[in-house]
Amino acid sequence: MPTLVLTLVGTDRAGLVAAVAEVIDAHGGNWEHSELAELAGAFAGVVQVSAPEGGVDDLRAALAALPGLVTVSVPAQGGGAARDTTSRPLSFTVLGNDHPGIVHEISAALGSHGVSIDRMTTQTRDAAMAGGRLFEATVSAVVPPTVEVADVIADLERIAAELQVEVAARD
């Protein structure tokens, strides 16, 4: 069965996930993995689906016909490069007063080392005692075998000092 990745964006409403799941099921597909969220009244999600051979076009058309979704895309299979098996994981958190540019600086530092972000979760929340907003991120990344993890962490710590946030690497 071909593996597809669906991206879903639309106005959040009750029953939206059920409608997508119903279409996938009706076309013989299998919902395998997903990341779904409500963000400021919008629904956003990425779903990995296996679909029967020869049924991809019908599934795509049925998903595109769902009301209220801004986009549904099904990228071509085999789109990514294979990951080197000697790559190493790097996980870290970022916490500090919220201000523009934190994600840009952190992601640019990772990109300059050829580090690929596998998963990143961010949020802002009210600071409990001091007032203002806190920015928090949890990042899981992959460091290529030609790059020293310690060099990446040192760069993140340098940027953290400049941004006045805390970066803590995790095992």
UniProtKB/TrEMBL annotation:
Q: Which PROSITE patterns match?
A: ACT (PS51671)
Q: Which organism is it from?
A: Microbacterium invictum
Please name the InterPro entries in this protein's record.
ACT-like_dom_sf, ACT_dom, GcvR, UPF0237/GcvR_regulator
Q: Which Pfam families match?
A: ACT, ACT_6
The residues covered by the ACT domain are 5-80, 91-170
Name of this protein:
ACT domain-containing protein
